[in-house]
């Protein structure tokens, strides 16, 4: 309902808005949005080794896990009702090259992690990021030639990366690179190889944001990144452009779209859900997660309350789901509340 016309009846003291808020049961009756474990997607960081649980200093409460520990952690997430995870690699620095060849090595860390998780937990959905930044020696999502991030050559590599991930058993390919035409190219390659049932969740409207900082620490791309990502990620000043980006990705065959970051872009989520009505996801990114954690640590507010209020904001804006580092904690709280 966009316009609130007066009915002629709704005047104080006849109308008292506080009546509907007077008790927990009335508040539950009139609640317009609900959060459930089904809304949560859990991003996780995988690292080489066994028994490794390596804390990420800029993301308190988040650890890089070796495959064995990750399989166990994913089992817990599944038990809590979380439908899917998004998996990111911390790549050994020696494997980073200008051609990002490790991205399409069928035996790379991501592919091994996908196989191990699928073997133990076939019922949980696995989302894999497609972009070259964890594998590129200059930290960019695309190949760099003479200082330019080249589009079409990058798309060819992204297709190879998507294919090895699909072969390993990945359920959802999530291109986060913002190259033009990559959804169509990846869809074509997947279909050609017999993976017509593998989904695509495009990072359709992804902004050149400072809030990715802690993530770049987590995957080890921050220290190697040369320059910024403004020639491919969007300008935070724009919102009509996000509509165009999403329209293109839908036309190219994406099944779901994502807006990223989330919290500072609730207006974009709202517009996109209203404009297209397609499954729309928000990425509550690393810097947004860190803000709440660090502010709570300083005594500004209670962490759990701030986190749950934040997740509800995404639902209110129209998101069908939220990628959040707090997914497991949120699912535990939801279980306790039910
Ligand atoms: C890689 C990628 C990034 C994130 C997800 N995939 C970082 C970037 O584009 O620099 C950020 C996620 C987060 O900050 O939580 N292309």
Overview of the molecule:
By secondary structure, this protein is of the alpha/beta class. It is 38% helix and 17% strand. The chain has helices spanning 24-30, 67-79, 109-120, 151-168, 182-192, 213-219, 240-251, 266-276, 286-297, 303-317, 327-337; strands spanning 40-47, 53-55, 63-66, 84-89, 125-130, 144-145, 148-149, 172-175, 199-206, 256-260, 280-284, 321-324. The strands form two sheets. An eight-stranded parallel beta barrel has the order 1-4-5-8-9-10-11-12, surrounded by nine helices. The chain has a two-stranded antiparallel ribbon with strand order 6-7. Helix 2 crosses helix 3 (109-120), helix 4 runs parallel beside helix 5 and helix 7 (240-251) crosses helix 8 (266-276). The mean pLDDT is 96. The chain binds ligand PBG.
Features:
single chain, eight-stranded parallel β-barrel, 11 helices, 12 strands, binds ligand PBG
